[in-house]
Design brief:
Elements: H1 19-68, H2 74-103, E1 109-112, H3 113-123, H4 125-130, E2 133-139, E3 143-146, H5 148-164, E4 171-179, E5 183-190, H6 197-200, H7 224-234, E6 238-243, E7 249-256
Parallel strand pairs: 2-4
Antiparallel strand pairs: 1-3, 4-5, 5-7, 6-7
Helix pairs in contact: 1-2, 2-7, 3-5, 5-7
């Protein structure tokens, strides 16, 4: 029974379609949604624990090796420990950011997605140059209501993903903002290898990086697009990922347009 912590039980009331049957069906549907949500949270907790355990286990191994071999080069050990520790910190901060977005515990203000896109592109320009990728930003003023910090994180994650998962050379990233009657759209489109729809459908799942997309030193912690999805939903928006026919990915974030801002 649900009162005892079991969410698998269903009333499954039979008989004619009356108000009692409708109430029972609604209760069963509610239990199904809660059960699915709890199962999703349990899977996420298990995955997060596994991801956090990995750098800790590596650190323990490195320390054990150093203790058993006092003559080992400490410089190399420190460098490797620094790398592993940085990954653990990045993962922890990503988990905290994801939790903050899920709880919608942020202050809302008027923001312009076009300016946020330019800010993220400027920050990531050195990374783009390192990867031989050209970033092109264009579009309309895109007024929305939300957290500047979270929307900047969302935009940065999308641009970082587009830069890292691109062609080996001469890749491009196109960033565009469009305003419509009731919404604003932010689109990031990048060249790259051909992706299947099946793979693309898993990219926003936590810790699902896609085997063929894990390469280089910028594979991340597997939460980049999961954070994008969470921030989008926290701002009452929608996120759409579509593989490009020529290769690469097109990501569109659609948010409610902000009402006219009359400041004093």
């Amino acid at each position: 029974m649900a009162a005892n912590g079991s969410l698998s039980h269903r009333i499954e009331l039979e008989g004619r379609q009356d108000e009692f049957r409708e109430l029972a069906d609604s209760f069963d549907a509610m239990l199904a949604r809660i059960e699915a949500h709890v199962a999703e949270q349990q899977r996420f907790a298990a995955s997060a624990s596994h991801e956090l355990r990995t750098p800790l286990a590596i650190t323990q191994t490195l320390l054990d090796v150093a203790r058993n071999d006092p003559n080992r080069d400490t410089g190399e050990l420190v460098d490797r420990l620094h790398t592993v520790n940085t990954r653990a910190i990045d993962l922890t901060e990503a988990l905290l950011l994801l939790s903050r977005a899920d709880q919608r515990s942020f202050t809302r203000e008027h923001v312009d997605l076009s300016l946020i896109a330019e800010e993220a592109a400027e920050t990531l320009l050195p990374l783009a140059e390192k990867h031989g990728v050209t970033i092109d930003t264009s579009g309309d003023i895109a007024p929305a209501i939300g957290s500047h910090a979270l929307l900047l994180q969302m935009t940065t994650n999308l641009l970082h993903n587009a830069i890292v998962h691109n062609l080996p050379e001469y890749g491009t990233v196109q960033v565009k903002t469009v305003i419509g009657p009731g919404s604003v759209m932010f689109t990031v489109e990048n060249t790259g290898e051909k992706l299947t729809r099946q793979l693309v459908s898993t990219l926003t799942e936590p810790f699902q990086r896609g085997a063929e997309r894990r390469r280089g030193d910028h594979a991340g912690v597997g939460l980049g697009l999961a954070i994008v999805k969470s921030i989008t939903q926290a701002h009452d928006g929608t996120l759409t990922l579509t593989p490009r026919a020529a290769g690469g990915l097109c990501v569109t974030v659609q948010l409610p347009v902000a009402p006219p801002h009359t400041g004093r």
